[in-house]
Amino acid sequence: MNPAGTWDLSIATPIGKITVVLDLREEAGAWRGSAHGAGEEVPLRDLALHGNRLTWRQSITKPMRLNVAFDVVVDGDTMTGTSKAGRLPRTDVAGQRRA
Asked: Quick check: 73 and 79 in contact, CB under 8 A?
């Protein structure tokens, strides 16, 4: 399973749907990435791939300052899972890899 590429993500949050562009790449055996959305670009931390399960953390400042953890499953060109920000409830995440 190779999740490298550009992904269009949709995150269903309590304040509405947020769209994010996720860029993933492998460099020297380690996964790196960044997320672009809500007018900011943030690096992904603790990015790890275990089989088809991908996890990472990121900090955002818009629409509010939060630390968010993601746990998704990659199946070909689709990604589904959840995100969790602090004490807020888990939210659904869905994504599609760009061609």
From this structure: yes
Could you report the per-residue pLDDT of 21-61, keeping only the tens digit for each? 999 999 998 999 999 987 899 999 999 999 999 999 999 88
Domain CATH code at residue 62: 2.40.128.120
> How many angstroms separate the CA atoms of 3 and 52, rounded?
8
Contact 55, 48 (CB under 8 A): yes
Q: Provide the domain count of the chain.
A: 1
Task: Report how far residue 31's alpha carbon sits from residue 12's, in angstroms, rounded to the nearest whole number.
Answer: 25
Q: What region, left, alpha or beta, does residue 35 occupy, with left being phi > 0 and alpha being psi -120 to 50 degrees?
A: beta
Identify the residue whose tokens are 């990121």: 58
pLDDT at 38: 78
Domain that includes residue 54, residue range: 5-97
Token output for 61: 């400042």
